[in-house]
Amino acid sequence: MTSFGPESLQRSSVGEGAGHIDYRLARRHLVNEYKRGRLGKRDLCDAHPELMRAARHMGQATTELCPICEEEELVLVSFVFGPRLPAHGRCVGSREELAKLAIRSGERTCYVVEVCQGCSWNHLVRTFALGRTAR
Questions:
Q1: Which of 14, 32, 44, 77 is most buried as measured by Cβ atoms within 10 A of its Cβ?
Q2: Total count of domains within the chain
């Protein structure tokens, strides 16, 4: 059962709790528009070459099939933005690396993008606050 008290706002693990934004509804809307023929493949399958490279080398494999081509399994790519990181963010390849960034002082934001390496579908899956403020 989900609690709606103050304790529900505390982070229980990396990527959950306060500051977590999930984009499933927006994703569902885009996929439905594609299946209805209102959006074309060219409108949705436009991953930047650098995102495709990050998916190939740093992505986390999933077992979920691409909702557009329905042939390739999706890959999750995580980028962290914040203090003392490059302006273009830092691509994070493992949960351990993400945890290391979380213990540094300063608030960071993690963006998780799903990518299909077959058709170049890409969609922001979720964002969440990472780290802590300096004391």
A1: 77
A2: 1
